[in-house]
Amino acid sequence: MDNNAVDTASVSQDSKNMALLVWIGTIFFGFIPSLIMYLVKKDDAYVQDQSKEALNWSITAIIGYFAGVILTFILIGILVLMAVGICHLVFCILGAVAASNGKPFRVPFAIRLIK
Fold first, then answer.
1. Please, what is the angle between helix 45-71 and helix 13-29, to 10°?
2. DSSP string spanning the chain?
3. CA distance from start to end of the chain
4. pLDDT at 2
5. pTM beyond 0.70, yes or no
6. What are phi and psi of 101, to 5 degrees?
C-alpha cells in the first residue's frame, strides 16, 4: 500500500460523488474535470487521489490519440485510435464504479506523470 492510499472506511458520500463526477466527466471532457477537481479540492484526500489518477489517465489517452493520428498515415492508426477510445471508455467506467463504492482505482496502463 503506497503512502498516498486513502482509508476507504472514512470516505464520505460527498467525496464519492465528487470522484464519480470526475470519472464520468473524463469520458466526455477529457482532462478538464480532473484538472479542475485536482486544483480545487485540495482538502479532500480521496477526491485529490482520484482526480490525480483521472488526470494521469487523460494525459496517457491524449498521448495515445496523438500517436494514433500520426499512425493513420500508415493506416494502422485507425486501429490505435479505436483501441485507445475503447480503453478510455472502459477505464473511465471502471473508475466511476470504484468511486461510487469509495474504493481507490488505478488505471493499469496510465503513465504516472502527476504524483
1. 10
2. --TT---GGG--HHHHHHHHHHHHHHHHHTTHHHHHHHHH-TT-HHHHHHHHHHHHHHHHHHHHHHHHHHHGGGT-HHHHHHHHHHHHHHHHHHHHHHHHTT-----TT------
3. 15
4. 47
5. yes
6. -95, -5
